[in-house]
């Protein structure tokens, strides 16, 4: 074979594939920062909140969609004295788990800084599966592979291991939990898949995000509840009642809840170790919830010294019976319910009163 043919064969078989691999792998390392994987979450701009370089808010509210639709941060900023809370930011992780919340706050602190106050939505599973293994609560949802950085995952895993909750054999021998390397490879797989679909977005996944307001943590336009406030239609009420039947009582003694509590306990300890001055929980009821409230006495034993705001006490006011109907669906408050809940949080942050006793 002639020398020129050998060179062409070498270029074709070795150099071109190698260069192609580099074009994929090298940009992918930038995706290891929070939110950099393009397009693999509900809204690509959500990742920008975790790494935009802005100073941290005084108050961060960490939760899922109930927080997104149920609390109006503008009311908080207007009514809470600046010496207590000068600015509020909601960190809303749609369809999240306690593990996602833990990792999300770690990412926020690493990239944005430490807030003065942290409010955490209680998300204990209200669906069947309470007898699932405890470790199931330690796992992340699939979207976390795009939204969070691999370094933060390694920190989370190591911290839970230090707590004695995740044995190293479950990670490196029995593969019951993803190792940091497995997280990285899954992260890389997601990134490459979406990058091949949209190479431009892979280069700049946050283009235009500074001009976009995300409804799920943007202003909810909360409005006061009055005697003239309309109630949802009969059709809506029937639909919400039917959907609410899927919820089951929250059993803090179940194996799954014990795992969820362990992740939350780790999150609270992390926040306090990093310098957060005040950490509190808040609880949103579901529509028509009568007996599903968490046993707050047992909760106080699990999280000593951590206040809990029970919005069920407010919404289930016997003097305002139609207030409990102010939902958009079986899980989320409408703007009237959101106003009442937000005002209760204003009172708590201003006076320190109103938590479950």
Instruction: Please estimate the helix content.
Output: 40-55%
Radius of gyration over all CA atoms, rounded: 23 Å
Derived structural class: alpha/beta
CATH superfamily: SGNH hydrolase
- Given the C-alpha coordinates, what overall shape results? globular
State the order of secondary-structure elements, H for helix, E for strand. HEHHEHEHHHHHHHEHEHH
Distance between the termini: 87 Å
Overall pLDDT level: 82
**Which range does the strand content fall in?**
5-15%
**Tell me about the biggest sheet?**
5 strands, parallel
The total beta strand count reads 5
Given this structure, which CATH class is correct?
Alpha Beta
Task: Give me the CATH fold name.
Answer: Rossmann fold
User: What spatial order of strands do you see in the largest sheet?
Assistant: 2-1-3-4-5
User: Helix count, per DSSP?
Assistant: 14
Q: Would you identify the regions where 5 or more consecutive residues have pLDDT less than 50?
A: none
CATH architecture: 3-Layer(aba) Sandwich
């Amino acid at each position: 074979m002639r020398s020129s043919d050998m060179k062409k064969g070498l270029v074709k078989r070795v150099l071109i594939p190698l260069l192609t691999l580099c074009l994929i792998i090298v940009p992918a390392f930038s995706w290891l920062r929070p939110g950099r994987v393009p397009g693999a979450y509900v809204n690509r701009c959500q990742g920008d909140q975790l790494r935009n370089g802005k100073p941290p808010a005084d108050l961060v509210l960490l939760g899922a969609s109930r927080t997104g639709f149920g609390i109006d941060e503008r009311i908080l900023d207007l009514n809470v004295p600046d010496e207590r809370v000068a600015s509020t930011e909601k960190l809303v992780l749609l369809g999240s788990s306690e593990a996602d919340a833990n990792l999300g706050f770690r990412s926020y602190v690493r990239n944005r800084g430490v807030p003065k106050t942290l409010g955490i939505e209680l998300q204990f599973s209200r669906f069947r599966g309470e007898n699932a293994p405890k470790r199931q609560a330690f796992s992340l949802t699939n979207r976390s592979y795009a939204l969070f950085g691999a370094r933060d995952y390694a920190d989370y895993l190591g911290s839970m291991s230090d707590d004695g909750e995740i044995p190293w054999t479950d990670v490196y021998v029995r593969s019951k939990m993803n190792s940091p390397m497995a997280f990285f490879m899954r992260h890389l797989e997601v990134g490459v898949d979406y990058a091949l679909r949209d190479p431009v977005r892979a280069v700049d996944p946050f283009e235009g995000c500074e001009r976009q307001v995300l409804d799920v943590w943007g202003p909810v336009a909360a409005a006061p509840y009055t005697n003239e406030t309309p109630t949802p239609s009969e059709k809506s009420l029937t639909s919400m009642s039917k959907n609410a039947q899927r919820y089951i009582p929250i059993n803090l003694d179940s194996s799954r809840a014990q795992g969820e509590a362990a992740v939350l306990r780790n999150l609270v300890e992390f926040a306090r170790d990093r310098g957060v001055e005040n950490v509190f929980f808040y609880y949103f009821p579901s529509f028509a919830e009568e007996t599903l409230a968490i046993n707050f006495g047992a909760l106080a034993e699990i999280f000593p010294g951590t206040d809990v705001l029970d919005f069920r006490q407010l919404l289930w006011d016997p003097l305002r019976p139609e207030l409990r109907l102010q939902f958009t669906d079986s899980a989320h408050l409408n703007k009237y319910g959101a106003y009442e809940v937000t005002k209760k949080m204003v009172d708590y942050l201003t006076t320190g009163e109103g938590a479950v006793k």
